[in-house]
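Q: Here's a chain of 127 amino acids. Please give me its 3D structure as tokens.
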Amino acid sequence: MTEPCLSYILKHELDRVDDEEFCEEIEAFLQGEEDVYYSYSYPPNEKELSRQVGHSAPVNDKGYKPVYITIFSKLSAAWDMYAIERVVKIIADDFLHIKVERIEFLDMPTYEETKVSYERDYAPYVG
């Protein structure tokens, strides 16, 4: 999520009570000095443990790895191809501990495919 996106969801999409922790993470990032920050969504229960990431990532107080990692970025105002390439290299270094030289976009999902993925992989873990 880019800075403009984060500002927008704070004002228009998130509930300050139900999403208090996420709102606080966003506000701290927007006011802070970091250019990149990771927000982690953990399995809500043991049934969802199979969805944990397979790479190195921080565990929560129950010892669970995240099922979803959201990246906050001040590196670009929009997720254009250049910004995506840059962030993929950062994520590969931070989580997979590999230096990626080149990013190649093989299959661009449609809007509908992206929407289905969001609803399946992200929405159940928010709020």
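Q: Can you summarize the key feature?
A: DSSP finds four helices and two strands in the chain.
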